[in-house]
Amino acid sequence: MPALPDYFDPSHQLIRDSVRRFVEREILPHVDDWEEAEEFPRELYLKAGAAGILGIGYPERFGGSHEGDIFAKVAASEELMRCGSGGLVAGLGSLDIGLPPLLKWAQPALRDRVAPQVLAGEKIMALAVSEPSGGSDVANLKTRAVRDGDCYRVSGSKTFITSGVRADYYTVAVRTGGDGFGGISLLLIEKGTAGFSVGRKLKKMGWWASDTAELFFDDCGVPLGNLIGAENAGFACIMANFQSERLALAIMANMTAQLALEQSLSWARSREAFGKPIGRFQVLKHRLAEMATQLEVSREFTYRQAAKMAAGQSVIKEISMAKNFATDIADRVTHDAVQMLGGMGYMRESLVERLYRDSRILSIGGGTREIMNEIIAKQMGL
User: Fold this and answer.
1) Fewest C-beta atoms under 10 Å: which of 8, 53, 147, 191?
2) 154 — phi, psi (to 5°)?
3) Number of folded domains in the chain?
4) How far apart are CA 214 and CA 223, in angstroms?
């Protein structure tokens, strides 16, 4: 996939080269085994931290690089996705949804203690918002935090938490005030805190290599200093974080489609039927042309929203559109890729089988497709 000069510069190509070598050396030889084992070694976080991958986009004083450079992050994310395991990329990258609120709004002492450990891969960070009673309806979350002297007493539960089993730090959405979005706060809760426990590792349709867990808080004591941002102002922090998460999911969707298209093209050129490569049959040739067209449109639209974000523009409506469009295209292209490969596309040894399964979570995570449409409609004045 050629770099585009209006979005990517030579420094981004260096990032691509570095991350590609990391993927080839540290991930590709083992990724199939890690998928079957439904986890990857914790050591990979340390290796990614030492290689500077976890720190891309974050401040240098915490061990990061290319602070605020959205396309540096895009380049790294695209190359990581070439490992073919969306679950591994989601697990390795769970810091990207858990850490930003802490960097922006936490007290300096907390931020300065936690961020360097996470960016070095020494500690793992997760975001905990979704609950058994509802995921997308953030304003009505139930987990309660009550002030008690110098701490909050937290009671409730979370579910579908990426890196939930192995994380050390959790950015947790809690209710500190009344009903609705005005009563929500964010707390940093550390593993090992009395009253906090991690439930079973959840079994999923896709993203096998990422651990996903339930979390339980039973009168869990959290220091007041672990409050992230102002009390009862957490909803705005969560919504601001969602924009970057939705961009990341659109990037993942486009790369899922890219890999599926590449596999389809390779198969169409090498697989023969009735005495010629199947790619020479018009029906399949045209299907590949449509897959490529849909992907190209989705990728360009996603890049455009990233460029607007980099320029400081608000893209609440457009990033929701980009996520919906990209995830729709990923679903369509992976479906067509399985069909193109026929029986082989249904085999676990085939990459497109995994891509097909993994694509389904992308239109659910970070706000469902239906919630994206609600946001789009609201931004249109409806």
Assistant:
1) 147
2) -105, 130
3) 3
4) 22
Distance CA 314, CA 318 (A): 9
| Spatial contact of 222 and 205, defined as CB atoms under 8 Å apart | no
Cβ atoms of 170 and 189 within 8 Å: the answer is yes
Lookup: tokens for 27: 């991930």
Asked whether residue 37 falls in the same domain as residue 165, the answer is no
- Residue 4 domain flag: no
For residue range 161-198, what is the model confidence (pLDDT) as tens digits? 999 999 999 999 999 999 988 999 999 999 999 999 99
Give pLDDT tens digits for 262-290: 999 999 999 878 988 888 889 999 999 99
Q: Give the span between the Cα atoms of 98 and 100, in whole angstroms.
A: 6
Select from 131, 133, 146 the least CA-distant residue to 232. 146
Q: Which domain holds residue 186?
A: 125-233
Is 212 in a helix, a strand, or coil? strand
Count of CA atoms in the C-beta half-sphere (13 A) of 239 = 17
**Does the structure show a pLDDT above 60 at 4?**
no
Q: Three-class SS of residue 218? A: strand
DSSP-derived secondary structure for 43-56? HHHHHHHHTTSTTB
